[in-house]
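From: lab user (bench 3)
To: helpdesk
Subject: output format question, protein + adenosine-5'-triphosphate

Hello, I'm new to running complex predictions and I'm not sure whether the block I got back is the full result or only part of it. Here's what I submitted:
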Amino acid sequence: MKELKYLNKYFLKYKGRLLLGVFITVIATVFKLVVPMKVGDSVTSVKQYLNGEISSISVVEQQLLINILLLLGAALLSAFFTFMMRQTFIVVSRYVEYDLKNEVFRHYEKLHLGFYKQNRTGDLMNRISEDVSKVRMYVGPALMYSITTITLFVVVISYMFYKAPVLTWYAIAPLPILSIAIYRLSVLINRRTTIVQQYLSKLTTFTQESFSGIAVIKAYGIESRTNTNFEELAEGSKVKNIDLAKVQALFFPLMMLLIGVSNILVIYIGGTRYINGQIAEFGTIVEFLIYVNMLTWPVAVVGWVTSMVQQAEASQKRINEFLKTEPDIQNLVSESTPINGLIEFNKLSFTYPDTGITALKDVSFTVKPGETLAIIGNTGSGKSTILELIGRLYDVEENMLKIDSKAIKNLNLDNLRDSIGYVPQDAFLFSDTLRNNIRFGKENAVEEEVIEAAKNAAVHKNIIGFSKGYDTVLGERGISLSGGQKQRVSIARALIKDPQILLFDDCLSAVDTETEEEILQNLYKISKNKTTLIVSHRISSVKNANKIIVLENGKIIQNGTHNELVNSEGYYKELYAKQLLEKEM
Ligand SMILES: Nc1ncnc2c1ncn2[C@@H]1O[C@H](COP(=O)(O)OP(=O)(O)OP(=O)(O)O)[C@@H](O)[C@H]1O
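Helpdesk reply: Thanks, we reran it on our side. This is the complete output you should expect:
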């Protein structure tokens, strides 16, 4: 229960409703007790009439009528309060589920990129859905059934002992066996359910990947191989489901068997004791039969609840593991620090903490607001890493990276990220309308702003060419757009933000040279007072920049303007000559 202590704050939050729930449960149980009592009374009256102890039939009839009315009233009230009981406990559990999901999601969002690399998306999703659902079972049904069981036990068993103590011992003797058996069965069911869920998760991942990569599957003509793999997984899933069904099928027969044993004991022992005169009223036997049946479900529930709590404990442990993970990147400054955009790298070296790869070595440069710095170099030379460090996705030593002459850590993180428009290498678009994908950069942007950003990113004409224009809904990950269109929507999203710092990570690679030129011209106008960094493999994208640096294995091997670099021997000149040749061909 150590891990579940985390939920106590939610119990406190909803204490009013929970206390009301407990009160209602007690009332519902008391009314439940009236039913067997009145059935017992009625049977006793009839028996007394048959024995000649009551001579007038009308007296019996009147007594039966009163009993029936009381029975009906008690049953109705008990049903009403049982309904109210579920309305309190189950509703509270849904509130807690909602709160916990939001808490976990908010926490996930704060965590650093390294966390997402170490943990698989499926696992993150499972903890927020599956695990939270299991925890809800503890907050809702487990708590509700525990309280019902305790109340029913205290009230019913005390009354049974008061009525016929010896018979009570016999009647409740099989109940602990039932409880233990159900517990064992529940553990087995849970174990098999977990396996079934693992198979389901494998099946879902496989299906999702197959459909996401359907173009590759078709292009390679491997549909039949994919089918076979799917069938194998489905077969495994079927076998495990059948295993589960076998143990689940035992649940009710086992319960019925043990209820049957209790019933036989009540009839046999109760009958013998009535014949011997040790029980005064014949109705007591009938009354006890109803009690035994009433107690069976709560007793079975003890076993069920125990396994529910165990599962919730395991799930909460997994949730706590992530909730206790501190984000590596923390906002250390609470006051606002507006950003002008002077970026200084001073002998910066950086090693990725998770892989130990040194991506940058001794990198120094300065970019002032109004300037454009272009970064060029082979793949893996560290270009994207420079942009990631400016967005403070990773931390470096204080004096190595300064913005506006302050160590990046001494800037308010929200201000910093707000002032950056970042266009990543892989344009990621949401399954939403084109308008909302662009507006993602500025939530409250009006239509004119969306259109202007799209025009500057040279994608407006493409968008109005679609039959639904800006209302076109994209497929998953922007599947219905071409690579170049996706890149340009992603650029429009950064431009609409009107940020002080613009970071473009090789985001013109899928755009033809004419459109590239158009975008660069627009950028030239927009970024007059902004700091711009452009990463590219193409000379055409970088030639107009104020400064160009050439990276190789994390080191700056050349720097200067386009004219300077084409006139000195080295990587840049060679690349220029090669790309010029390609263009001419
Ligand atoms: N998130 C990461 N975690 C660990 N290592 C990384 C990470 N990102 C990049 N690296 C490593 O750091 C080095 C520099 O990568 P980076 O992405 O900065 O290169 P790049 O010049 O942008 O390459 P490309 O032109 O292919 O995009 C590479 O060796 C890469 O394997």
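A quick orientation on your result: The pocket of adenosine-5'-triphosphate is lined by residues 352, 354-355, 357, 359, 377, 379-385, 425 (CB under 6 Å). Let us know if anything else is unclear.
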